[in-house]
């Protein structure tokens, strides 16, 4: 089935957005620099772009930059005076992302903050609220990151969380994989959180069987 999922993703890309030299160069540079190939897929990148535009986002927060592949899609959704803050633990990832964002022509809109995201988030006070938040870093911290997204958002802020299905792993209640434990803690938090409306959508494609949370701050 996986091959067919991949073929359909290729068909979708060919029909609806085609090759993009800048994004291809980003993925090539990531590979050359030894970054793991765990970026969102092209179809998911286009989805993030569309969600940010539908939300009318002017200020975007991203947690988990890697080489900036998703960052480029999101930055392209911003108006000329829009801003994107992206948080990355690994200095090498941030350095590669900086180069990729530069060649993509979106550096002026993007502020990469290096260090543990929980520290970078705690340091954000008194900035304008974020309209859109994409969470895609260490899965064990997802409940905390959503709580911070609410604190740094406003009524109507959109929150997307990547990788919440992991080939059905989310159902493993006694898992000792901290990413599964973290994902289940995220769902527990969401189910008890009266400040959000939330759902999760399962996906198949080049990233196999996974899914994302979509939430909106009330
Ligand atoms: N959003 C990217 C992929 C992110 S991969 C894309 O789709 O293109 C996850 C990233 O989160 C990795 O670069 C990893 O270094 C980073 N990360 C892991 N733990 C983190 C933490 N505690 N704080 C900030 N970033 C973290
Ligand atoms: C992994 C992380 C991701 O954000 C992703 O989209 C796919 C895989 C990982 O850590 O394996
Ligand atoms: Mg991801």
Question: What features would you describe in this structure?
Answer:
With 218 residues, this protein is α/β, with parallel strands linked by helices. The protein has one domain (2-217): Rossmann fold (3-Layer(aba) Sandwich), CATH 3.40.50. The chain is built from 8 helices and 7 strands. Strands 3-2-1-4-5-7-6 form a 7-stranded mixed sheet, sandwiched between helices. Helix 7 (142-151) runs parallel beside helix 8. The relative contact order is 0.14. It binds S-adenosyl-L-homocysteine, 3,4-dihydroxybenzoic acid (DHB) and magnesium ion (MG).
Layout of SSEs?
Blueprint: H1 2-16, H2 21-32, H3 42-54, E1 59-63, H4 69-76, E2 83-88, H5 91-104, E3 110-114, H6 117-122, E4 132-135, H7 142-151, E5 158-162, H8 178-192, E6 196-203, E7 210-217
Helix pairs in contact: 2-5, 3-4, 7-8
The structure holds S-adenosyl-L-homocysteine (SAH), 3,4-dihydroxybenzoic acid (DHB) and magnesium ion (MG).
CATH architecture label: 3-Layer(aba) Sandwich
Mean pLDDT across the residues is: 98
Rg, please?
17 Å
CATH class: Alpha Beta
Percent helix, as a range, is: 40-55%
Overall spatial form? globular
Instruction: Give me the oligomer status.
Output: single chain
Structural class from helices and strands?
alpha/beta
What fraction strand? 15-25%
**Which residues sit in consecutive blocks of at least 5 with pLDDT less than 50?**
none
List SSEs in N-to-C order.
HHHEHEHEHEHEHEE
Q: What would the CATH topology be?
A: Rossmann fold
Please give the domain count: 1
- H/I helix tally: 8
Find the CATH superfamily. Answer: Vaccinia Virus protein VP39
Instruction: Tell me the total number of β-strands.
Output: 7
How is the biggest beta sheet arranged?
Answer: 7 strands, mixed
Bound small molecules, which ones? S-adenosyl-L-homocysteine, 3,4-dihydroxybenzoic acid, magnesium ion
